[in-house]
Structure formats: C-alpha cells, structure tokens
Amino acid sequence: MSDSIIQLLLNGTWETLVMTFVSGFFGFVLGLPTGILLFLTRKGQILEQAVANRALSILVNIFRSIPFIILIVWMIPFTRGLVGTSIGVSAALVPLSIGAAPFIARLVENSLLGLPSGLIEAARALGATPLQIVYKVLLPEALPSLINAASITLITLVGYSAMGGAVGAGGLGQVGYQYGYIGYDAVTMNAVLILLVLLVFIIQHAGDALSKRFDHR
Amino acid sequence: MIELQNVTKTFYQKDREVTALNSVSLRVPPGKIFGVIGTSGAGKSTLIRCVNLLEKPTSGQVIVDGKNLISLSASQLAQERRQIGMIFQHFNLLSSRTVFDNVAFPLELSGMPKAAVKEHVAELLQLVGLSEKANDYPASLSGGQKQRVAIARTLANNPKVLLCDEATSALDPATTRSILNLLKDINRRLNITILLITHQMEVVKSICDEVAVISNGQLIEQGTVGEIFANPKQELTRQFIASSLHIEIPSTYSERLSTTDAEGLHPLLQLELTGQSVNEPVLSEASRLFGINFKIISAQMDHAGDVNFGVMLIELSGNRDNYTAAINYFIGKHIKTQILGYV
User: A214 to each of A93, A104, A192, B135, B137, how far by Cα in Å?
Assistant: First the structure.
C-alpha cells in the first residue's frame, strides 16, 4: 500500500468520524425532543394530546420510510440552501442528521416507554412540573437505554455515511466506492471494510461500557 | 383535613363506561389515620389517586386542608401536591439516584439551597433509620428499606397529609409491622393525617382510627375501627374481619368430626367474640354455672381500637344435660356460637 493510499484512508476515516458524530449530534438535537414529545403526548401520559401525537407520529413515519440514498438526492435543494453545496462532508451532514432524527425519536420514545409508569406518578405526587419530570426523572432514569440508542444510531450512521460516499459525501464510503468498486483495487476496498468494522466495534463496545456505567438498576 | 364529596370517576374502555368510583364521600379529621379497605378492583386505588388528583374525578369535590383542589390550575396543583405526601406499593424510587439524592429530589423541585438540602435530608434519613445507607443505590436495598426511603422522600416537603397506596402489600409480615410502626410514629410525632388503602385487615387493625369498606366503587360501611369491628353490618366487612383471624379445625379433630351427637362424643363449638360480646370471663363463669369443662383447641383473640374480638374453638365435656344451657348462655352474652360437630 502506497503512502498516498494510506493518507487517503486516514483522511477517509476522519471524514467518516466527523460525519457520524456530528450528524449523530444534530440527529439527537432534533430527535430527542421529538421522541420526548411523542412519549408525553401519548394516551395516558402527562401531556396527552391525541392530535399532536398523531401528527408527529405520521411525520416521523414519513421520514423513516424514505430510503436514505433517495433522501440525500431529494434533499439536495435544501442542503444547498443551508450549507451552500451538495457535495462533500458538510453537505452530507444535512441529510444524515435529517435521516437519523426520526430514527432517534422512535428509539427515545421506546426508551421512555420502558420506564416504570410509577416513577412519573411519584414525581407528580411530589409536585414536579412536566418540565421537571422530563429532565429530572425521564432523562436520568432512561440514560442507560438512551446511551444504547446512541450507539445504535451512530452505527447506523457509519453505514449511512458510507452510502453517502457513493454520491460524493466523502469519507471511507467514497474511498471504498471509487478505489474498490470503480477501480477494483481489492486491497484498498478490504482496508476500507476493516476500518468500518473496527469503527462499529469500537462504538458498540464504548456504548455498552458507558451504558453499564450509568445503570444502577 | 381531607374531604371527598360525592366523588365519581368513570373510565371509558373501548366505548364501555366503567364506574370506578360512585359518589364517594369521606372525611378524614386532622391527625387521624383513616383506612379504606377493599378487594382488588373495588376502586380503592382510584380513590386515593383522586385525593391528590393523579386521577381527576369526573364529578365531585376534593378538599384538602380547606382548599378545593378541583378548582386549581396545573401549577397551583403542583404546589399543593407538595403538601400531600404519597407512598406506593412499589416504592417508585429513582434508580439513577442514591438514597440521599432520592430524598433530596422533592427539595430540588422546590429549589431549596444545596446546604439546606443536605441538612434536611440527613435529618430525614435519621428519622427513618437509614443514615448509613445514604450513598447506596435503591437496587441494593430490601423492600422495607426502599419503603423507608420513599417515606423520607415524601416527608421532605413537610406534608400535612400522607397518602399510602398499598404501602405494605409488597412486604413480608415482619417488615409490614415495622413500616406500620413507622407510619404510626410519624402520625403521632409530626401530626400528619394519613389516608391509606389496603386489602389487609391487619393494617387497619394495627394503625387505623377509622375505616371505610369499599366495594364496586362505593363506600358500603364506615366508622371508627372499634365500631366496625364491634358491629359489622355488611357481609364483606365481616369477611375482612374474619380474614384477619386465621382459625382452622386441627386435622386430628376434623378427621373424626361427626355431624350427629352420640354417647361418648363431645360437642365442638366455635365462639366468635365481637365488640358487642360482653367483656367478662365467660368460660370460667359458664364452667361454674353448668358444671361443664371447656378445652380450648384453638383460639385467636385480638384488639382493635378499644374492642376485643376473636374466635375460639372449644370442646365441651362434663354434664351433658347442660350443654344447651351453656350454649344459650353464650348466645345471651352476644357471642356468636356455632356447633361445628361432635368429636
């Protein structure tokens, strides 16, 4: 493997990391509140609101049903408006974040549903406001499960960002696609695969360890 | 201190209307411990949740410490709930917080400064006897310890009223007793009015001043514990009282129990003493009067409010001709007497 290829791989790894974590971050910025709202507006919950819940749920389902590779193309005008370009890492962040958000919202909703309902009841009985219930009860209690949701999301994003590489997003996906698929350079392609596998293992392992660290049940 | 006026709660389950509470009215005087007893599904959980409006009644008034809770806004209600403590069957502690932080939780909600929180929490843990567990997580505690933490947590707000939702139902008998003693202690020392719901007559008997029996969403009987044990009017009430007394014919007797009298057999009597029964040494009295010997086979006597009550199985022997007279004597003393058979 020549120095230039190694440089390419290192650069690709860095870009993949940036895409994964930055879009994961923005995905949570959008997905976490959405997931909390999905939960709170459900029937029997503290902000029960059937119409809002239905509307939010439909919106989430629509975005979840668009295949990611199509979402990237479909969003090009919006991406261009937001970051000025539709090619490269920063352009990829936009559809990655939008693609991850509804996925995260459902994971968050699910995490919260897994909490014993008595916790909310006890907090209400102690005089907690809905906002206090969210940040003092729901989020801390669901933290181990939310960390698991984050590792699942980041791993999905590693895959999505590689997919994005095929349409000019950069990162390991693009290296693998250009040198491996188009140029048929088996060594480079396999090196990309190994790096992706490593990345996924590290995220999963770190996520598990972190989740366990915060789990006092 | 707590007053429910004609509280009705209806739920809708798949277009079917279910009446969980039907025009329930009760009044808990300040400083008293009031128990509501009922079987599961009778509506007692809904009842206690209506007191702090965790469930909003369909109609009726809920008045706690002179304030009508129904008319309050959401934020006023949250404020008012701090005056109304509540503990639960499953404790509902926050698993992500230590014992200390669980007790500090309500103080954080009301924005108490950190130093004051620390001092107050230490006092509360002292009160429930868990000072040395302050840094443990709830997962490492026993059921009784968890309930103590929950009690400390709910007392942090200095409530005037404490609601206990089946607080001892998940605990073993010894732990149940220690938690009940703690509740009684809190009631006396801090003068906190307690409303509890339970399906265990034991609980009512050991700490309540007044009791109401709930069935199908209605209070079918209420009064002081003494009155109810003395003179239960409803069959269900009698069953609850009976359930707190466990008495069985020993198998050596039940095997040879005959339904008809014969020479050489002795009658086996069951005597049920209620609050109406005359408080006299009836057995020795009857023994003297009728020349009959009584052998106590099994007995359980108890005390609730200021009333003695209980059940006894006794075997009669001696002067056969006076058996009927002795039985009539017991009946005359308001003891429910029943011939179970002959042994």
Answer: 29, 20, 33, 15, 12
